[in-house]
Task: inverse folding
């Protein structure tokens, strides 16, 4: 019953009950010791708000723009792998919820629903996420497909050329090739709703890749090809090739260091996402909220208008407000929407967005603001180590 859901944590608990263990764990874990994964959330709490009173806080608005697109709040849905395994047709359901809410949805290259599936089920242009892969022909085709589908931005992920190890995935058999344990297979029997939905779709694989390689219906072949595709030679020159193929707006995802933010400016990125891949890659990297101020400062020093987004650890509207006040133009969320999807499908994603916006609006009001566009770091008490991060 959605009326009893009052926060993202409630959605997480329901998703944990409804989604098969191996796919729930895939979302809900970080790499190695998970120190970065945990820091992403706990560091947000270290930023305290300065409450203001007796300010007229009627007529509030969280609406703004991201890359010139109007959005109902400064938030976009992050690209997440195999989203259609949280719930059948998950990418289509999440894209529809994002469209209804008036925010951008990003489709991962590694999605179950294809670019064409999502385009056929939505009218708002979505963003498409791309990895640098060895098969340039595949990349070029993906880019053309994204163009044809009317995607309004290309999100290039820079931090997954080597995979961070997630212990739980290995233990659950979510590996290459997939080797689910008997326990995990038995666990499916306890998730009838998930199974029922999954039986009614044929989107149970990498939708963007099927059709590109022979024997793509063989999961062993498909996963081996995919994993071997990540190109470790990726460097800044490759970006010029991507830009030429695409010709539209580019967002670079995985920036954690001011020097890389500077490179992004030099290479003409329209936006960056300050991201440590949800704590799923370099364990021991700083939380994204701690890395943000130095990046904002460097981009400002360069006089660049490149937009700065941030993801990782955002579970509340308060976190959105903290990130925005600290200089992010917007946030992106992965797990927060995935919990909603696993719990209640499209309605669950919409509910997650509704909760986040409501929390953002109320917290902004407590800080004495009525327009998100006017919020700045004056509303925060910032720990010293955030500013010292250069
Ligand atoms: C087989 C490769 O962003 C994650 C995703 C990456 C998906 C790659 C799947 O798991 O963090």
Result:
């Amino acid at each position: 019953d959605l009326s009893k859901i009052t926060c993202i944590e409630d959605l997480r608990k329901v998703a944990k009950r409804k989604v098969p263990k191996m796919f729930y764990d895939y979302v809900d874990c970080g790499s190695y010791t998970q120190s970065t994964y945990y820091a992403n959330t706990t560091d947000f709490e270290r930023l305290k708000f300065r409450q203001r009173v007796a300010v007229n806080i009627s007529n509030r608005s969280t609406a703004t723009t991201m890359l010139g697109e109007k959005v109902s709040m400064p938030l976009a849905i992050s690209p997440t792998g195999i989203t259609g395994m949280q719930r059948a047709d998950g990418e289509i359901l999440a894209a529809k919820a994002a469209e209804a809410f008036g925010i951008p949805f990003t489709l991962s290259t590694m999605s179950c629903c294809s670019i064409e599936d999502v385009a056929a089920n939505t009218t708002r242009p979505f963003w498409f996420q791309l990895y640098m892969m060895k098969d340039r022909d595949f990349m070029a085709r993906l880019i053309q497909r994204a163009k044809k589908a009317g995607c309004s931005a290309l999100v290039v992920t820079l931090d997954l050329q080597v995979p961070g190890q997630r212990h739980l995935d290995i233990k659950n058999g979510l590996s290459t090739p997939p080797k689910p344990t008997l326990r995990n297979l038995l666990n499916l029997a306890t998730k009838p709703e998930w199974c029922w939905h999954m039986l009614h779709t044929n989107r149970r694989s990498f939708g963007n890749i099927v059709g590109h390689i022979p024997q793509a219906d063989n999961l062993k072949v498909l996963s081996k090809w995919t994993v071997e595709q990540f190109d470790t030679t990726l460097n800044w020159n490759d970006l010029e090739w991507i830009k030429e193929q695409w010709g539209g707006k580019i967002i670079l995802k995985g920036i954690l260091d001011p020097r890389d933010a500077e490179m992004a400016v030099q290479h003409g990125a329209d936006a960056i996402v300050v991201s440590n891949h949800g704590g799923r890659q370099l364990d021991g990297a700083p939380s994204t909220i701690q890395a943000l101020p130095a990046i904002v400062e460097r981009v400002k020093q360069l006089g660049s208008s490149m937009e700065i987004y941030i993801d990782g650890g955002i579970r509340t509207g308060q976190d959105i407000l903290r990130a925005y006040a600290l200089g992010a133009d917007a946030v992106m969320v992965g797990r927060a929407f995935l919990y909603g999807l696993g719990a209640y499908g499209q309605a669950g994603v919409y509910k997650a967005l509704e909760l986040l916006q409501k929390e953002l609006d109320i917290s902004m009001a407590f800080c004495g603001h009525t327009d998100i566009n006017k919020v700045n770091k004056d509303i925060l008490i910032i720990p010293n180590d955030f500013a010292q991060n250069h």
